[in-house]
Amino acid sequence: MGITKKVTVLAVGLGLVTLSACGSSDDGGTGGDGGSRTVTLVSHNSWAASKDVIAAFEKRSGYEVRVLEDGDAGQAVNKAVLTKDNPQGDVFFGVDNTLLSRALDNGLFQPYEAKGSDLIPDEFRADRDKHRVTPVDTGDVCVNYDKAWFSEHELAPPKTFDDLIKPEYKDLLVVENASTSSPGLGFLLGTAAQYGDGDTSRSGEAGSGGGWQDYWKKLRANGVKVVDGWEQAYNEEFSGSAGGKQAKADRPLVVSYASSPPAEVIYADPKPDTAPTGVAEGTCFRQVEYAGLLSNAGNPEGGKALLDFLISKPFQDDMPLNMFVYPVREGARVPAEFTEFGPQAKDPQTMDPAEIAANRDRWVKSWTSLVLK
Q1: Continuous segment of H or E residues that includes residue 260
Q2: How far apart are alpha carbons 99 and 164 in whole angstroms?
Q3: Are 299 and 35 in contact (CB under 8 A)?
Q4: Is the dihedral of CA 108, 114, 118, 120 positive or negative?
Q5: For residue range 143-166, what is the model confidence (pLDDT) as tens digits?
Q6: For 2, 197, 231, 262, which has the most beta carbons within 10 A of its beta carbon?
Q7: Which pLDDT score is estimated for 2?
Q8: Each residue of 74-102: b (16+ CB within 10 Å) or e?
Q9: 3-class secondary-structure state, position 144
Q10: How far is CA 230 from the centre of its chain?
């Protein structure tokens, strides 16, 4: 997912990161299997974790953790599939329910049931018969709005998908490319869940007769702007974010996350009493992110230990304020800032993974023709 502590505060670039150099370990410096003492996590560029939490895992397990960040989630998944026979690492983190079938159908992962999986509710679990992926976090893709902009213009912010195609919101929204960006794809699937596919429209006046395709034609006519990924949309185009203010951005609506407003509060200096951004709850689509042991991993035992760690309580407690997502493990701590400034949507759009698998590629192709050409 898109927003992280390091993106918000440090603007860290992409690349290969060694989280800590473990000079000694409890088992004499070898990995838990007596082989390689390095385990490599491949991820999108929104990975973040506290150094002390990683260091504790390294000391306990004897493995040194390296992280290879490889672009937006969609780009990272595509590259992992292309390199599956000679993978870049041992574990892949960051494939969500919108792209899960692509990873599974291409044999990206080998089976492993992580320790602690029984503490993850069934609503987050997928592929339960084969255990090729482990749920790690969840969050909602939603349209965010710039409170100050709407106040200054004496305009009520939008609340629903239908609102976004109204004339008063013309030229205000920026979204991510559904073919390259995880939140962009999540937003597309949210519209498909809302309006249906073509003549099989489920609900909503805007999609009546033409489903999500008709809706996107109207959204395009209303001046929606499309950019490649979340960082560009949120930090360069959205007027409500700290980065957007510095860039003099002029779009007060952006596809982001329900957890983005808490980030704007937590890392502001001085901290405001209320979040400067809000969420249009009628535009939310729920995502779940997974990790898996890569097929042909060079250090499978290290990979298994890392997967166990990703759903352990120390990591799950640490994760929200680093990656601004919700934990999936029962009993994991949710920060008070999330509850106050960025609660999860009460009734987000969802879609069965089988429906996503059956339609995603066709929908993305159709979306590209409708919106980009």
Answers
A1: helix 260-266
A2: 26
A3: yes
A4: negative
A5: 999 999 999 999 999 999 999 999
A6: 2
A7: 58
A8: bbbbbebbebbeebbbbbbbbbbbbbbbb
A9: strand
A10: 10
Gap between the Cα atoms of 205 and 218, Å rounded: 12
Cα–Cα distance for residue pair 309/104, rounded to 1 Å: 22
Q: Which amino acid is at 191?
A: T
Q: CB neighbours of 186 closer than 8 A, spacing ≥ 6?
A: 96, 98, 141, 255, 285, 287
Please spell the DSSP secondary structure of 150-193, one letter per residue. HHHTT-PPP-BTGGGGSGGGTT-EEEE-TTT-HHHHHHHHHHHH
- Kindly state the helix (H) or strand (E) to which residue 17 belongs, with its residue range: strand 16-18
Strand partners for 173:
253
Average pLDDT taken over every residue of the chain: 88
Q: What is the pLDDT of residues 46-57, one digit of tens each?
A: 899 999 999 999
Q: Beta 64-69 vs 16-18: how paired, if at all? A: antiparallel
Q: Report the alpha-carbon distance of residue 293 to residue 91 in Å, rounded.
A: 5
Distance CA 28, CA 217 (A): 62
d(CA 287, CA 140): 6
CA atoms of 62 and 111, how far apart (whole Å): 23
Q: Evaluate if residue 18 carries a pLDDT over 80.
A: no
DSSP string of 287-331, one letter each residue: EEEEEEEETT-S-HHHHHHHHHHHTSHHHHHHSHHHH--EE-STT
Evaluated on CA atoms 264, 331, 140, 57, the torsion sign reads: positive
pLDDT digits (tens, 9 = 90+) for 286-328: 999 999 999 999 999 999 999 999 999 999 999 999 999 999 9
Tokens 């960082």, residue? 231
Q: How far apart are CA 177 and CA 202, in angstroms?
A: 24
pLDDT band at 180 (very low <50, low <70, confident <90, very high): confident
Query: ∠ CA 162-167-168 to the nearest 5 degrees?
Result: 95
What confidence tens digit (pLDDT) does each residue in 216-231 have? 999 999 999 999 989 9
pLDDT average, residue stretch 2-8: 51
Tell me if residue 341 falls in helix, strand or coil: helix
Write out the H or E segment, with its range, that includes residue 336. helix 336-341
Model pTM?
0.83
Residue 40's nearest CA partner among 92, 76, 90 is: 90
Between 29 and 242, residue with greater pLDDT? 242
Instruction: Give the helix/strand (H/E) hosting 278.
Output: strand 277-294
